[in-house]
Each structure stands twice: as C-alpha cells, then as structure tokens.
Amino acid sequence: MKLVIAFIRQEQLPAVKQALFNAQIRHFTAMMVVGTAPNTEQQMYRGEAREVSLFNRIRLEVAAKDSQVETVIKAISEGSMESGGWGRIMVTPINEMVKIWTGERGNLAF
Amino acid sequence: MFMVSVPKRAANCPSEYNVMSLRIGRRVMRSIFKLLVPLALFFISMWGVEANAATGTPQVNFNALDTLWVLIAAALVFFMQAGFGMVEAGLVRSKNAGNVLMKNVLDFCFASLAYFMFGYAIMFGGNGPIVGTSGWFLSGATSAAEGIPLEAFWLFQAVFAGAAATIVAGAVAERMKFHAYLAYSFLLSAFIYPVVGHWVWGGGWLAQLNFYDFAGSTVVHAVGGTSALVGSWLLGPRFGRFNANGSSNPIGGHNLPLVTIGVFILWFGWYGFNAGSALGASDPLLISRIALNTTLAGSMGAIIAMVTAWVRFGKPDLTIALNGALAGLVGITAPCAVVGSGASIFIGAVAGVLVVFGVIWLNKIKIDDPVGAVPVHCLCGIWGTLAVGFFGKAAMGAPYDGLFYGGGFGPLGTQCLGIIACLGFTAISMWIVFKMIDATLGLRVSHETELRGLDLDEHGLESYSGFQIFHTD
Predict the structure, then answer these.
(1) Dihedral class, residue A62 (left if φ above 0, else alpha if ψ from -120 to 50, else beta)
(2) What residues form DSSP beta bridges with A49?
(3) I want to staple B400 with a disulfide (CB 3.0 to 4.6 A). Which of B20, B140, B411, B442 is the partner?
(4) Does B359 touch chain A (CB under 8 A)?
C-alpha cells in the first residue's frame, strides 16, 4: 500500500480530478493549503504594491494498492499537464490501513 | 454556541490580560447601565411628552407633497447607513466584519437619540451666530422648512447626522474599541456636527456670509471625513500595515461584492440626500436637475478614478473605482442644485482624480484608512464646496455667481473661509473628544484583540461561522 501525495495548483484540480475518475480512482482527498514559491509576486491593492509569498495550492492524497500506484501517478500527471504541468508527486509507504466499519485491514480495507 | 467560543479562546491565551480587561470592562459597563440608563429614560420620557405637546400646537399650511418627498428622502438617506455598513464590512478583514457592522448600526441609533436630545436644538434652535439655544429634546422646537412638520424635518436632519457619524467607522475600523466608538458617535452627533450645521444651515454666521453648501459636502461629508482623519491619525495604523523600515504592506478587504452593493446602496440613497435637500417637491425642475447632476458626477467620478488608477497602477482597481463613484457623489453634494450638467461632469471628474491621489497621499504620510473615508469624504467634500465658488449660478438659486460666471473671487473666498472654519472647528473638537475618550475608556483595543479580531474579543461572535467555500469546477 502506498500513499500518493500530490501538490498541484488550484486551477489544475478539475482536470486532475477528472483524470483520476477516468482511471477509476474514486477515493482521494483534496486539501486547500498555502505554500511558498522560488519567487514572490507583486500584487496591487488600492495603489500599493503587495508582496505575496504564500500561494494557494491543493494537496491531493490518494491511498493506493501497490498495483494501482502507477495508474494514480499517470492520472495525476495527465490532469496536471492539461494546465501547465506544474506540481510534484510523492509516494510513501502505508504501514497499515483499517476500514473502521468492518475492521478489515490491509488491501481488504480499500 | 457563541457563549462557548469566547472562554475557550481566552483560556488558550497565555496571558490573563484579556480575561481581566474583559471583566473590568464588563463591570464598568454594568455600573454605567445601572446608573445612566434609567436616569436617561426617565428624563427622556418626561421631555418626550412635552415635545409632543409642543409639536401638537396648530401650525398652518403644511404641504402634503413636500412633506411626502422629505419623508421618502429621509428614508433613502437612512438606507445609506446600510450602504456604509456594506462598504466598510467588505473592506475590512473577515475577523472584524461584525464589529464594523455593529458600529454602523449603533452609531445611527446613538446619533438619532443625540440629535433628538441636543443636536436639533443646537442646529436649528434660533438664529444665534454660533449655536442655537432652544428646542432641547424637541421641546418647543419648530421646523426650519416651510410647509413641513417638525417631525419630518427632524427625521431628515437626523439621518444626515447619522451619515456624518458613520463615515468615521470605516477609517477607524479594525482597531477602535467598541464602547469608545459609541461614546464618540454620541458626542459627534449631539454637539459637533450640529454646531457646524447651525453655522451653515441653521442661520449661523456662515449662512449670513452667504456660504453655500446645498446638501452637505462640508457639513456632512467633510465634517465626517475630518473626524475620520483625526480618529485614524490618533489611533495609529493597524498592526502590520506599515513595516518597520517604512515600507507599506496593504491589507486587503475580504469581500468586494459587499463593497460593491454598498456603493450601489449609497448611490441610491444619494438621490434622497441631494434631491431631498430641496426640502420639497414643489419645484420639480430643481429636484430633477439635482438628480441628473448627482448621476453625472457619480458616473464621472467612477470613470476618472478608474482611468487614473489604470494609468498609475497598471490595472483598473475595483475598490478605487467604487471610491471614485462616491467621490463624485460627495463632490456634487454641495453644488448639485446650482450648477449645470457640464459643470457636474467636470466636478465628478476632478473628484475622481482627487480620490486616487488622496489614497496615495494618505499612505505616504502613514495614516491608515482601510476604506478610503478621508480621501472620499474629506478631500472631495472640500472640492465640492469650492466648486460652488467656481461654477455656481445665481440664476439657479445660488446666492452669487461663481468665478466662471463673472462672480469674481469673492464667492470662492467665502467658500474657502467656510471650509477652513468648519473643518478647523471639527478637527480641534474631535481631537479633544478622542483624547478625552482615550483618557477615560481607551481608544484602541489590545494587541491580542487586534490579532484575534474584534468580532471574537469585543462581541464574542464570528461573522462567518462555519463558512467555507471550496470550488473544484
């Protein structure tokens, strides 16, 4: 079992979500987060420059069976490439997973 | 639910400071209410009876149409309070929205009481050069407008007092204590606004000098704007607004749709503010001209402010354009009855430029005005009053011809004198009022309260409880 974590931009979420759905991956969580970037950005508010250093991002988490991991990575990448291709995908092992309702563990808990 | 959230937050706070100040504040407020409220209610109930008896004395020749128009206009101006509320709520951060709305509601309530008790008597109680002296609590007061009952005339004037008071709320937003604000709003509408009003509209010395301010560019807007300037200057900027090295760090408003609906409401109310100031509908040409001029100046103010911001800052800024509309409307308030439509367009245009440079200038001198109340109301109020000296036409009802119509520099001098006198008086008296409040109640909230937001600490509520928007499509 692996946890696939992806950081993408807000505007990429619809396409990434669609790509995951198309790949029959229908269990994931999207979180609104803020993060830094190599450069800051200047915005104008009422005539004054505003230095913006934290940007809105989406953190996507998908728990996947080992057999699904490549599908998930491919789907997220495809969706992301549709609008700019920005983002990072990280894969980390999951030690244990429990389905609360049934008490099933491991791959049975999906 | 609200009851629970406050102690929890206070307990999380490392210092006991907030809990203590809350407790002391509560004790003070309780004793004030115990003593003052019954006393005040007692006196008001007595005076109210007499007032009714006084106004019940037969007066002759009321004009139904004029009265109806004044009452409708009063309702329109009253609704401007909602406009101010929305503009100010939208331009502050979400953690302070409830506080600024609370101030907008309560300052009108305090203004109407203050104006009933003292304000009207000072403003319209006789022809003394400095202040009026009769008609306290409306007892024995008379209407200053021909054909309109005292009650209607009082209401129309009271909503103006409320407008002057509420201008300040935006400029001092996000950092002024709530009860300090209540004290200020009572004092302004009871004593300071009425004195200026008496000078200009109540037969005081400026009226005798032929100083002309039709609907209140100076009396309402510049007085409110000057108070806002003094208030925000004494309070100091919001925490984090200016960096230690002197650079500035703009703090964005949290809801621009609210600001926009607020400006539309204000504009809507302005037809009552300006056209209602004709104090009657018996001259259809006059009120129609006023409505036309008001529209043109407001539109031109928004257009020119937008263009100025576009050229200076690179993008058309919504809040600046909205400020520009208000600037044009404030500018046309004094001259709306006595200028032609061409002059209105010009007045609105200049106001649109002034407001943008006013915003820049305030930032430069490090006075923090979250909503732009000072550039809009003070600066453009001054410009509108001066504009009468330039564009006023005696044929339309001004006491003189303006500079551009052969009146010479005399009228302009009178307008300048009036502005200096009114704003000088307002600035000095408001400085004293704010200093007095600072010494007794304290003006500014604690640093912790400012960081957590005034909604939670001052009122124990969240304006957007449980509110989150997350769109994926």
Answers:
(1) beta
(2) A44
(3) B411
(4) yes
Report yes or no: B63 at the A interface, CB cutoff 8 Å.
no
- Give B69-130+149-459's CATH code, choosing from 1.10.375.10, 3.40.50.1110, 3.20.20.300, 1.10.3430.10: 1.10.3430.10
CB B341 within 8 A of CB B292: yes
Fold of A2-109: Alpha-Beta Plaits (3.30.70)
Query: Is there a contact between A50 and B309 if contact means CB atoms under 8 Å apart?
Result: no
Q: Tokens 């969240």 correspond to what residue?
A: B462
* Residue B350: pLDDT band with limits 50, 70, 90: very high
Q: Looking at the whole model, is its pTM more than 0.90?
A: no
Contact B395, B409 (CB under 8 A): no
Q: In angstroms, rounded to a whole number, what is the distance separating the alpha carbons of residues B277 and B99?
A: 31
What pLDDT digit, counting tens, does each position of B97-133 carry? Answer: 999 999 999 999 999 999 999 999 999 998 899 999 9
Strand ranges inside B105-229, DSSP E: none
- Give the pLDDT of residue B10: 43
Least CB–CB distance from A50: residue in B250, B309, B372: B250
| Residue A3 and residue A69 in contact, taking contact as beta carbons nearer than 8 Å | no
Quote the CA–CA distance of B145 and B61 in Å, as a whole number.
12
Nearest-CB residue to B356 (from A13, A14, A47): A47
Q: Is the pLDDT of residue B174 over 80?
A: yes
Element (H, E) at A94: none
Domain boundaries, chain B: 20-55, 69-130+149-459
pLDDT score for B47: 61
CA distance B473 to B471: 6
The residue ranges of every structural domain in chain A are 2-109
pLDDT tens for chain A, residues 1 to 110 = 999 999 999 999 999 999 999 999 999 999 999 999 888 888 888 888 888 889 999 999 999 999 999 999 999 999 999 988 999 999 999 999 999 999 999 999 98
